[in-house]
Write a structure and sequence with these properties.
Pfam families: PilM_2. This protein is of the alpha/beta class and 345 residues long. The protein is 38% helix and 29% strand. The chain has ten helices and 13 strands.
Length: 345
Amino acid sequence: MSKISVGLDIGFSSIKVVSLLKDNDNFKLVSLGSIPSPRPGIISDSDTDLETLANSIKQLFAATKIDTKEVIVALPESKVFTRVIDELPYLTDNELSSAIRYTAEEFIPMPLADVNLNWQVLIRSNVKGGDAKTVVLVIASPKHVVSKYVHVLDLAGLHPRALETETIAVTRSLAGSNPFSPSTMIMQFGATTTDFAAVSKGLIWLTRSISTGGMALTRSLAQHFNFEANQAEQYKKIYGLMEDQLEGKVFEALKPIIDIIAEEGKRMIRAFETKYPQNPIKRVVLSGGGAKMPGFVIYLANAFGLEVQEADPWYSIVKDKESASRLVQDAPSYSVAVGLALRED
């Protein structure tokens, strides 16, 4: 049976939508589009700002000719609490529910009554015993954040089929559930944050998010060269981390911030390898709008000593030849929206 699925990624700098048609085992691209986010957008609590955002979403749906009202939407990693709990013994479902609530209180800095708590069992031993263990991915979404997204969708005339974190969506579009793909660290490089996820066999085993993203690079360039933000953004996109351009001056301005991100990535790789020494990270996939910055992939490959690839969320999607070449240009920035549209439930 054919079914349309729509993924909506409401980012800080842009809003993206992807519509896919599920036909038997294949997903076929129907429509996609992107529009700049109005500022301050989703981070605002003002009704006027949220109405402006909803109107932008309506415009995007009209421009892309998407008339499906049910959508899957991403919650930003910086607004949710994600943790892999791996020190649990064998537990029944009832015991697990209590244990998760007890453990969650340690890492969620707000009352549990104020969050939606979801979890996924990654490993559970079949029997009790000394070596038996349970590993669980826990996600807590603050209810006020969820209700704001639902409110914006309502204003835009849309209904949420599901809300999930950006990291879960990105993992689905870039790592899939292939049990043979190598253990991978996904770096989602956004406007205000960089999110890291260690993924193996299609499951997330470790996550981390830092509040350093593309806007920090733009600010650094603006200060360094005394530029307006728009000009700094252009220089970042054109010269990036190319040491042989403009006597390496752009590179020098960006390097300290890129090094903060790279150090966090190294820490993540080490933490994963300490927990799972038999299954080390073999590659890094760079996703998000900033992944296309010149020299970024090579710089990270040298920093990590690993293969680093630019994200391609379209690789398993059926598309016509004409759009295939066009999709390559912005591929990494669509990782979240494609992952959302690929969700099946």
